[in-house]
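Please, structure for the following, as tokens.
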Amino acid sequence: MRSIQTTGIHHLAMATSDMDMTIRFWRDLIGLRLVACLGRPGYRHYFFEVSATDMIAFFEWPDVLPAKPKDPGVPVKGPFVFDHVSIGVENEEELWELRDRLDAAGFWVSEPIDHHFIHSIYTFDPNQIALEFSAPVSGIDIRKNPLVTDPSPCLEARKGADPVSGAFPENFVRTPLDERIVYKGN
């Protein structure tokens, strides 16, 4: 099976009722560049650059309410989609600077937590989106050396880190070039 060559998370799309507040947090406090502002009357979709290949985006929906605060990783019951966003920072110094910056701005922020391969702080943006900022631990690269500390990993995890053939159809008909149509978006 040929693996699709991905380049990272292009963007995560979130929602806010206050784009100005969201811009002040992500651009002015966290330091992410605002790289795209799509919109028309009654519609906004703005993008912030996380890295050379990754972005976080927000739709502005006037009637959306901030999420109920939930600590990352704490189990929930019922319908649920997403736990938290983790954004990598270059090193431990950047992590501490960000922690101090969030604290000075009046945002709750955790003390750094050691997860063995990363050190992380946790906070919430003004929309109550749970955030983690993570700095790599020197000498540990889980992409080169996958880490398994679960004493009883699930069946599929026991098959290893790389894609396994046979789970899905490998022979399929590709759409001919002359039939490939890209439709205009909003």
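The longest strand covers residues 33-40. The helical segments are 19-29, 92-104.
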